[in-house]
Amino acid sequence: MKNRHVIADLLWMGAGAAVLAVIFLGAWHFQDNADPARLLAAKAGRADLVERMQLAIASASEAEKSAVLATTDEDSRTFADQARAASAEADRERQELASLLAADGAAHEQDLLARFSETFAALQRIDDEVLRLAVENTNLKAYALLFGPAADALAEMDAALARLLARHADPADARRVMPLAFGARIGVLRIQGLLAPHIAEESDAKMDRLEAAMAEEETRVRTDLDELAAVPSFRGDADLATATSGFVRYGDFKTRILALSRENTNVRSLALSLNQKRKAMTVCLDALDALRQAILDEPIRGVTYGRPVSPR
């Protein structure tokens, strides 16, 4: 009987010790979780992630604008790669912050991050389109053709017609030849003058009007050259043949220029960058500012951030 009492006492003592151990561990865990230094460090880490995301997005935007304004394909691709890398870094930091907030963040902070994630996804879609267009550089390539090979063909044609006029300065020929030769020379210069605004134009309707004006000039130039070829003294003339072949080559370049201009990748990427991209980035950074402020405003027991502690 006595042994039974001893065993019962020992069981009660063991149970009591176990309860005390559980209480002690719970108190220790609570104390650890409520440690101000640990909470401050966690807050600082989350705020730092937000600031790094802001910096990465700003870096991506800077590189994106450089890609849009670059004057060579190589530079455009280099800056586009930099923009994509910075955007990817911002996304990695976003995912890291999402994990931290899921484990130890307030519900409203998680909501703010979700709101940012939506705006950031929209920003990335615009960036993808801007960078895709920027690296193609079709407007720059059109300008290069216009002021390079096309201008050379025009100069060759103009010089040949000038020689033709110089060799046929006889008044009897001049009255018929000069209007035709000058008409052809002026007509091709007008086409050249219309191509430059076509390359810079954003509106398809205005491009259509410019192309219609070019077509009229082209018809007049061909008519002038055909009438010159009908002059008996110009049959087999080398300068007239050179002028005619130069205009044909110029027409080929014009066709290529118009095709590149219609793609309009530089104009479209610049318009996207200055309008949709700028607006989307503002919304994105505002969302990050709100999230950062929410993290900084997290209350921590015993920490007053320089403000006096309210008396209890």
Rounded mean pLDDT is 86
| Classification by helices and strands | mainly alpha
Low-pLDDT sequence parts: 1-32, 306-312
- What is the CATH C-level name of the largest domain? Mainly Alpha
How many helices? 9
**Main sheet specs:** none
Give me the strand/helix succession: HHHHHHHHH
Strand content: under 5%
User: Could you name the CATH topology of the largest domain?
Assistant: de novo design (two linked rop proteins)
Cα-atom radius of gyration: 38 Å
- Fraction in helix: over 70%
Overall spatial form: rod-shaped
- Tally of domains: 2
The count of β-strands is: 0
What would CATH call the architecture of the largest domain? Up-down Bundle
How far apart, in Å, are the first and last alpha carbons? 56 Å
Describe the structure.
The chain is an all-alpha fold and 312 residues long. It folds into 2 domains: 37-135 and 267-296, de novo design (two linked rop proteins) (Up-down Bundle), CATH 1.20.1440; 138-263, de novo design (two linked rop proteins), CATH 1.20.1440. 87% of the residues lie in helices and 0% in strands. It contains 9 helices and no strands. It has helices at residues 2-33, 36-69, 73-104, 107-134, 138-167, 171-200, 204-230, 238-263, 265-296. The longest helix has 34 residues, at 36-69. Mean pLDDT is 86; it is low at 1-32 and 306-312.
